[in-house]
Design a protein that fits this description.
Rubrerythrin, domain 2; about 10% helix; about 45% strand
């Protein structure tokens, strides 16, 4: 039988200091460079990748693999 004990004061303090999960991640939209349609929504870490993303993705409107660029931050 397991008994749950309350957290010690030191353990509680460590949990309060830790950063919130996903604090540095921002939502972005990916737009096709050929047809200019926004096809994908993704996230990126703004500290690890400060420059804008550019990926090769499938565009359902062009029906082929094209370059997709980051457009703006989404809410």
């Amino acid at each position: 039988m397991w008994v749950r004990f309350p957290l010690s004061a030191q353990k509680r303090k460590e949990e309060e200091i830790m950063a919130a999960k996903g604090e540095h991640r921002v939502k972005i939209g990916m737009v096709c460079t050929v047809c200019k349609n926004r096809n994908y929504i993704t996230t990126r870490n703004k500290l690890n990748t400060p420059e804008k993303l550019k990926l090769k993705k499938f565009c359902k409107h062009c029906r082929k693999v094209t370059d997709h660029r980051e457009t703006e931050k989404l809410k």
